[in-house]
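Re: the 446-residue chain
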Amino acid sequence: MEKKKAIKLSELPEEVTEDGLKIYGSTSYETQVAILSHYLHTLDGKHDTASSEKRYEILGAIHDYIEYKKQKDKTRDWSEIDEEEVVTMVAEENPLQYDLFADFFKVPFPAPENPKFTFIDLFAGIGGFRIAMQELGGKCVYSSEFDAQAQRSYFANYGEMPFGDITKEVTKSYIPEHFDILCGGFPCQAFSLAGHRLGFKDETRGTLFFEIEAILRKHQPRAFFLENVKGLAIHDKGRTLKTILDHLDDAGYDVVPPQILNAMDYGVPQHRERIYIIGFRKDLGIDVKSFHYPEPTTPEGKRVRFCDVMEKTVPSVKYYLSNVYVDTLKRHRARHEAAGHGFGYEIIDVNGVANAIVVGGMGRERNLVIDKRLTDFTPVTNIKGEVNRDGIRRMTPREWARLQGFPEEYKIVVADASAYKQFGNSVAIPAIKATAQKELEMLNIV
């Protein structure tokens, strides 16, 4: 077999911080790190994703990683490292014993030591599905995410670089032959009420569902768990959803009637409705009619409020709006109200729940809050006018993380603009976890 030339880690764009090495990059660069990180995380004798034809790529990635570390750490005596011995030993033993690979394992959210099931994380974003499934005892054996900044966040928190473009056969070739559950919050803009609602006519996003179908047909996992915007239920008068369900049925799965759940019923103060689609492989003989979606864990009257996740200390002045921008928002809303649209900014009651956090448009302005704790109004960014004195501010990225149920340990390693996008695109972890628990019960995984 002719060996392909591997992309060297030394060529990757990278950033070194006190928290450790963070390697990330575009689709043309991340593959080598994805190969290595997936391999290291499945060296337990049970979940090895490395088929024999991929072995040369993995060993090459280990060699290149050692060379990469040599370039970054000039103080270490590298003469003590026998590269060939490390390559051989890592392939046979736990790589945790080698400090060379600490960046892949000293992370906030490691996989459980004794997993009950395996899953793959498609359209992984920043790992909302992964946290939920890991908390239930699952081990992720493959992840895929196209966005470079999301890959960066994913790597920082799980020590694993997701593979890139799932439409490419080479990307799908690294999916292990066997795994239990396919998870995926496939791109929703094509079906969203806030988007153009082109559905399957949107070739860049709508048709990505068929990548899921192809993977299900080939690998036949025991079950799947898909998430999308509630607009999918009514898109094209319900025909789009029917097409999806028909394809899943034809792929060999009994599908539970989809249901729309609201995140605020499961422990987060956010009004976020999403449709969940769950299915089980037909030969398992599971009666999908007996499946019951989870009852609300926080019924009305006991719901978490925004003030419960609000920053405990006063946020930076950069989150407070200028008086010029506040006036612009007021005029913008007045124009829309005069036209009967009812669209514009909104200041939420901190004793209530937030609106759905979304990407683009007026996403952040639909979730403004009044926080009068600020005392120093000196701007730290270029703004028109002065910082408003009414305490009107945007929520912080950490508050958005809490609205989606991300633990405090979750590292935010990207700029605010990327962080808002990533959390706005994520799933609500508590709702995913509650639903996945029901799915696992049907599979007798408890």
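The chain has three domains: 1-106, 108-297+425-446, 312-395.
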